[in-house]
Amino acid sequence: MKLEGRGSGAALAGSTSLEDEFVALILLYSICLMAQCEQCGRQLPAFSWRKTCRWCVQHQAAQRGDDVAYQRVETAPWLRQQSTSMGVTQVIFGANIAVFIAMTLSLGASMLSSPSGQGLVDWGANFGPYTVGGQWWRLLTAVFIHSGLLHIAFNMWCLWDLGRLAESVYGHWTFAIVYLICGLFASLASIWWNPNVLSVGASGAIFGIAGALISSFYLGEFSLPRSAIAGTLRSLLIFAGYNLFFGAVIGHIDNAAHIGGLIMGLILGALIARVAPAHDDISKRIGVLLIGSVMVAGGIFWLQYSRGYLAHAQLGIDLVKQGQLDQGIAQLKKSVSARPNFLAGYDALARAYVAKKDYTNAAVQWQRVISLSPRDEGAYFRLGLIYLEQKDWAKAQETYTQLLKMNPNSADGHIGLASALSGLHQDAESLAEFQRAAAIDPDYPGINYNTGLQQARLGHDDDAIASLLKQRKIADDPDNEKLLADVYTSKGMFHEAVEANGKAEQLRGQK
């Protein structure tokens, strides 16, 4: 199975609970994956521990002179001779096991539990923002990474059965390249369908092998009779169909990778069966495999074009959240450079500049958002905040006035304009704007404190006390208590002033 987990920001979620998936699939795998006879390639019954089929057993008995009906041994598919050397299937199997053990030891995790999402990413999991952001090697490394003992156990079980059969059909080097191409294409499909999903596992490549065998058994010219091939073909179809069905109904299974691997396998298997079935026709085999390689390369270029700007943006946001501001800004610049009308990219870039306290460049980015989307109220509000931070009261006033022309009922607009007018010492106008904001949204954060501040500046002590007491009921705030103490002092209410000052000091001591 190809497992997925969602990743966002600095904390990437790893593969989640596997129990429901494995319980549902354990019976399915047992039914669908049947071993092949070592002599003739026929399919053995499910749950069989035999290595040879009953026809070959009869043949051996006849050779010994036993009183049985003679049964000749059919040659292996495409006259393939079984090799006594260590096969590619065993090499791939061993590589997966070695990676899993090394990853588990390095992360200090239990083999029975899933590693953290960040741990999987560190070991090369397929994650769209990182992969499309330039780390294309993750397309391959993710095929050799698994997120728990059960995950790798079932994938290796499938690989052992399907891999040995496919290797006997195609030969060592063709099988190895088909496996890798299918794994790469499966990873590409996963990113295309779920660009922000974390994906690991060999099952995309395994589905590719299943697809190749389906095409080959359906289209290929075999020395085995059709009746011997039919059972294996039927099991392969059941394997693919049932697993795709369970992938659709059970969460956290990356069906996009399964489908991608299966499609590539079907294509390669069909081409090999029709164009280059003979093992010694190396040039045609290379041509077929080059077609698969070109499809993978084309998928990479297409993803870079269609998803690249999103990947750079997500990676940039993640880096900014991790405090790597310069690296994050560089990625966000790549994003908007690739897609100049990407509003969210400019907004994220502006926020990154704010985190860096580079307010001039932040203002430039929100100005671009406004130029692309002149009625984006949020961009006006945030641009106005930049001007307030820079104490450019006139530009802030102009910006919030434009916002209120678009939406007179914007509490944000009235708050921003009130703050700009306060900076210009137009306290009466500022108080009026705060009051308009309070009428629109009485629960706006800090509205009572700011109203009380303007009332105090204008000498409206009773109104200021009323506003500040409202704020006290909403939340404890040392600034609110200090201002309240000052107004009490102005009114000659010294006992209340001492009490408010004491509360302000107490709240500051708690921070």
Describe the structure.
- The protein is mostly helical and 511 residues long.
- The chain has three domains: 30-76, no CATH class; 85-279, Up-down Bundle (Rhomboid-like fold); 358-510, Tetratricopeptide repeat domain (Serine Threonine Protein Phosphatase 5, Tetratricopeptide repeat, Alpha Horseshoe).
- It has 23 helices and four strands.
- It has helices at 19-32, 54-64, 88-107, 117-122, 128-131, 138-141, 149-170, 172-193, 203-219, 226-249, 255-275, 282-321, 325-338, 343-355, 359-372, 377-389, 393-406, 411-423, 427-440, 447-457, 461-474, 478-490, 494-510; strands spanning 3-8, 11-12, 126-127, 197-200.
- It has a four-stranded antiparallel beta sheet with strand order 2-1-4-3.
- A hairpin with a 2-residue loop joins strand 1 (3-8) and strand 2 (11-12).
- It is elongated.
- Mean pLDDT is 81; it is low at 6-34 and 70-84.
Quick take:
This protein has helices at 19-32, 54-64, 88-107, 117-122, 128-131, 138-141, 149-170, 172-193, 203-219, 226-249, 255-275, 282-321, 325-338, 343-355, 359-372, 377-389, 393-406, 411-423, 427-440, 447-457, 461-474, 478-490, 494-510, and strands at 3-8, 11-12, 126-127, 197-200. With 511 residues, it is an all-alpha fold.
